[in-house]
Design goal:
Layout lengths: L7 H41 L2 H14 L4 H13 L3 H14 L5 H30 L4 H31 L4 H17 L5 H15 L4 H13 L3 H14 L4 H13 L3 H14 L6 H17 L3 H6 L1
Helix pairs in contact: 1-2, 1-3, 2-3, 3-4, 3-5, 4-5, 5-6, 5-7, 6-7, 7-8, 7-9, 8-9, 9-10, 9-11, 10-11, 11-12, 12-13
């Protein structure tokens, strides 16, 4: 019989090597499991609106899986929700690099630029009011021009990204709704353009693709209302409420349409229902505006029932 003698250190070395391999394999499996937990936790937090918690969970997922485009897309959406726009753009850009065939990064970037454009429009509106009150406020005038330029740039970027997404896949109804929203914002820049007409076409296309898309009815209703087509707008808001009975925005804009149509009692009822769906803490400006409108209507409506309810 032949006996092979192995040095003790060598024998121990083999044992240690095998033990290390087994330990590394176990650690890798643990890391993958934890990454999966963080992924689903982040998605759940995102859907529930716990956006900052979602950022934390999705960041942990991406630390373990830095090549997963879906992680950057999800975290980008969370960043949009907390208005951290530079971080959102970085995530959508990274997702586009990792998955060039996906339209989702383009939609994400369009959402970011649309939100930034809306912020600039609000800034422009405030500055415009300052100039109206004091025409010699040259500082406000200069800032107003800057806000308009920034708004135009943001909306151009939003348009470019959204249009690219539609070119990649023209069967997604929500993408047409997004482009319609961008066109609506552009209509505030150039009132003489036909952007509202094109926006309505986009909303119509979205509803052809998905007749149950509540947001398309709501957005088209707003577009029609701004275009002084109140009766048509009301039909869209009623359909919105049929599909989503607690849609506060649909009640508010219905009230606006009823006022334009001189149906003041119906307007009061719509505003009242909206008021019951919001809180002063979460929507302070809208809450105050509705109370102001209700008080104005109360003075004009000779109805005991309205007096009691208002």
């Amino acid at each position: 019989m032949i006996t092979i003698r192995m040095p003790l250190a060598g024998a121990l070395g083999i044992v240690l090597i095998f033990g290390t391999i087994s330990l590394d394999a176990g650690n890798e499996k643990t890391r993958q499991t934890q990454a999966e937990i963080n992924w689903y936790m982040g998605l759940d937090q995102l859907h529930r609106g716990d956006l900052r918690e979602a950022v934390v969970s999705l960041s942990a997922f991406l630390q373990a899986q830095p090549r997963e485009a879906k992680g950057y897309l999800a975290r980008g959406n969370a960043y949009v929700g907390i208005q951290s726009y530079p971080d959102a753009l970085n995530d959508f850009n990274q997702a586009a690099l990792l998955d060039p065939a996906s339209m989702e990064p383009y939609i994400g970037r369009a959402l970011v630029y649309l939100a930034m454009g809306r912020d600039q429009r609000r800034r422009w509106t405030e500055l415009n009011e300052r100039v109206r009150i004091n025409p010699t406020d040259f500082s406000a005038g200069s800032e107003r021009a800057s806000a308009m330029k920034d708004m135009e740039g943001c909306l151009a970027q939003a348009w470019s990204n959204c249009d690219r997404a539609i070119q990649m896949d023209n069967t997604k109804a929500k993408t047409y709704v997004l482009r319609g929203e961008i066109r609506m914002e552009q209509s505030y820049i150039n009132l003489s353009s036909n952007q509202r007409g094109y926006a309505i076409e986009d909303f119509n296309r979205a509803l052809e693709l998905d007749p149950k898309l509540t947001d398309a009815y709501f957005r088209r209703g707003i577009c029609l209302m701004v275009a002084n087509r109140s009766e048509e707008a009301l039909r869209d808001f009623k359909e919105t409420l049929r599909q989503e009975p607690n849609h506060a925005g649909a009640y508010f804009h219905s009230g606006e349409c009823y006022e334009k149509l001189y149906q003041e009692e119906e307007a009061g009822q719509a505003y009242l229902r909206c008021l019951r769906l919001i809180t002063k803490m979460n929507e302070p400006e809208l809450f105050d505006e509705i109370e102001k409108r209700l008080n104005r209507l109360k003075q004009r409506i000779p109805s005991k029932r309205m007096d009691v309810e208002l």
